[in-house]
Amino acid sequence: MEKGYVQVYTGDGKGKTTAALGIALRCVCAGNRVFFGQFMKGQGSSEQRAVEYLPGFQIEQFGDLHFINGEPSERDIKQAYSGLEKMKEVLLSGEYDMVVFDEINTAAALGLIHSQDVLSALECRPSHVEVILTGRYAPEEFKEYADLVTEMKEIKHYYNAGVEARIGVEK
After folding, report:
1. pTM of the model
2. Cβ–Cβ contacts within 10 Å for residue 91, how many?
3. Cys-Cys link to 8, which of 71, 132, 139, 149 (CB 3.0-4.6 A)?
4. What are the backbone dihedrals phi and psi of residue 133, each rounded to the nearest 5 degrees, phi first?
């Protein structure tokens, strides 16, 4: 890629991480390398197995198995900042053509990480690196900084009828 852009996927609807994974698949299949960093996640998911099938795709999680209810703990904040440091290294390494900050919007909205710290990391990236930021509640600063912003809006979801997350579809 000659020029990398910044994309934001946000909103209350399903599909933010899924959209980023789809773009990552397209990028890898074009012969590029992708790093997919997942903030606030420490549970297993099917996409973690992508490294077995897709050369050029790497994924790492920065979080625990629990959901954050109320105020984030010092541990949650430390994990988020540790993840951000890793993402900075990845951005500067020159090894990746696309870098995904999965759930970074939510991490910023919940106070795990300051929006400005994320933007400072993005400022350091080589100009050819494409960046994707996902998660609910994207801060306005991210939307303003981005070149593309898409909001997923929930119209109807089977989860509301009691259907749990399914392996291979939601996890």
Report:
1. 0.92
2. 21
3. 149
4. -115, 125
